[in-house]
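Task 17 of the worksheet. Students: predict the tertiary structure of the chain below and write it out as structure tokens. Keep your answer in the requested format; marks are given for formatting as well as content.
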Amino acid sequence: MAKNSSLNAASIAKQDEFYTQYKDIQNELNHYEKHFKGKTVLCNCDDPFESNFCKFFLRNFNYLGLKRLICTSYSTSTVIGQQLTLFDYMNEPVVTGNGYVMDITEVPMANGRGVSDEDIDNLLKSKKRGVKKLKGDGDFRSDECIEYMKEADIVVTNPPFSLFREYVALLMEYDKKFLIIGNQNNITYKEIFPLIQENKIWLGCKFGDMAFRVPDHYEPRATRFWIDEFGQKWRSFGTICWYTNLDHEKRHEELILYKNYYGNEEDYPKYDNYDAINVNKVADIPKDYFESMAVPITYVDKHNPDQFEIVNANDIRTNPDTPQKGHGLIKDKDAVITTKKALTTKDEENYALTDRQTDRQTDRQTDRQTDRQTDRQTDRQTDRQTHYLCENCHQTQDVTELWECQSHSLISTTQTNSSSLGLTDMSQTIRSMDTDSRLVDEKPMQEYLSREKCSGVMGVPITFLDKYNPEQFEILGLANSARYLGNYPCYTIIDGKKIYNRILIRRRKRQ
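Model answer:
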């Protein structure tokens, strides 16, 4: 059995006792409703009296269709009795220094419509269904608490930050489904990153800022600390995320890529010790490069296993003297790039695949830019180089190459077999259409769309959708986007030039 001193020391020295807000729990759990029906849920780092995890599952016990809810508290919880004055099943006052468990299989509803706070209070005070003392101190690593873990289907909690490695190790050992809170820095742990690489753990939906209630004895801090009007102390972090092995929709959202590698090779230097190019920002991942790429650690929040593969950097070492890293990342002194211009220490930090502040700041700035702004910038660059597609878009000789992507290392794209039959049929229909035989002069889109000359098929930038008037134009389909059109190329060739991401439209005839 784990000793009481270990958790107590972690709580005092690390000050990692943070109490999650109800709204943050609800906002995340909303994405996983389908996983909980008929399941036993364990919250094994949660005071039954004060934890919002416990409160959430009590309030939603019937809605989620839970089979059983177990909540255990650690003996040195500093918030017991702050919100409720309770008695355990032996009618003894609940006090700090005892480990407690709440183990229930039903939550009665007084009004028959939903679980109220009064229902929860009555349940906790009930001698039959209420809170009981544990034999031990409630350490999640104790034999007593591990037995509860064995009986659970899903574990949901906010474990002590300083014991994150040990906590995840237990989840892996007993093969549990879970949804837990952690710090972004945990991604780089040698015990954690291999699990992410192997798709045994991934990030949840929330990533970034989160505020926590903290005990009264916590000392004030210069930043991200405040006391509310009720005297409650709060701390916030900008690097909080959820870790899980429950599938969710965000995990399968495709990352839209806009940048080109070829023609901009100087923006993507190669590492000296690894067979990989460096990508400074997630938004800079090139759409035409399928080899190994080193990206900021914040990429993990956007990782789609259907689109990219995360592999071990040890497998792509080009220098035999480069040591193997337990975490499998490109970082530290081996993340070297030799260029014509001597790199400064700051440059080397920017090129490393780490969780450094520079990466986080860059990605937060990039995330605030909308897809529309990026689309417009990309299309303006393309428009200066190519002609618009008119009637010749239906020529089959322009779309005979197969678009291929290969699995490589570090972070690389994987072959996608998905295709859209409807859009494929649409593209075939478009290729068979009879249209005028004219190419349109190179013009900005606004001027081009206002012209009366062309009434045939036109390939326009995707930003056209922002200006689309269904009474003026008809949308016919997409011009060669491989992820939509199966075995067609991701570009159209016109006069030897490649045009990407085009929507096929035709002007409607005036009545």
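Marker's comment: The chain is about 25% helix and 20% strand. The longest strand covers residues 202-213.
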